[in-house]
Design a protein that fits this description.
Elements lengths: L11 H15 L30 H29 L4 H24 L5 H12 L1 H31 L8 H18 L17 H12 L6 H11 L28 H13 L2
Amino acid sequence: MKCQKVSANLPFVEQHELDEQLWAIAERFFPRPPVRTLLGGQPRPFDIDCPVLHESKAAFEAELAEVEKLKAACQCFKSFLGRYIRDENEADQTLAQNVAEALNKHARKRVTREPFDHVISALQGLASQQGQTPVTLLIVMDFEEAIDDRLQDLETQRKDYWSLPRRAPNHFARIIALRFAKAIARNTGKKPTIGTSRDGSHPSTEFGRALDEVFKLLEINADFRRAGEWAVKQLTDADLLPMRNAFAGLGSYPSGQGANVPAGLAEAIARTDKKLE
């Protein structure tokens, strides 16, 4: 299939119709979430965008190295932010809070000096009002989650695409099958099963039938059984867990005045923690 059919460049109406068709299939396994996107719609049950492939192994390895550097940078920044909001070591927390407050003050001063002339200025102004450090924390969490997803895609490509003497057939079919299988596992806590009828031409399990429909919907010309079997084999125990809380392991927000943590932000994180208990 052509990636343009399922990319974000589709007209909004076509995207909505495609999403509804995907949900009609996915709801056989798990319900739609009550949350809506910033644009007012429902998130897709799983990602259907084409993975970025590379013209050469050297290009693949170059991107992998770059993404791994970004992951390391996130870990370093999270370490600082973790000390900022943890209560375990008072001296470390005080040091981090002092640094954070200096950064917050710089952001507030910059906003008062610069003219308000575009959307970026508005976003920077809102961030400075809420506290640049906690807002940056939220952004880093989202950024790291995106990096983790990309690393997983690259690792799959390494095993399935660049570690073989020849390129694996229909890599996109396998990626879509894996994303669908992971969505089912994450939302149900169970691995889907795949199988065919006695004559071998028709799917005999609910996941097989659904995957076959997804392939037809996305115009993927591939054997659902091979892609499905490969996808199920890739699932691990971690895939059976609900979507992770980005703030797990960072502790609770400090209550001191120096922290300057917005109450609304702390409440939002507390609600997230409660949902995932």
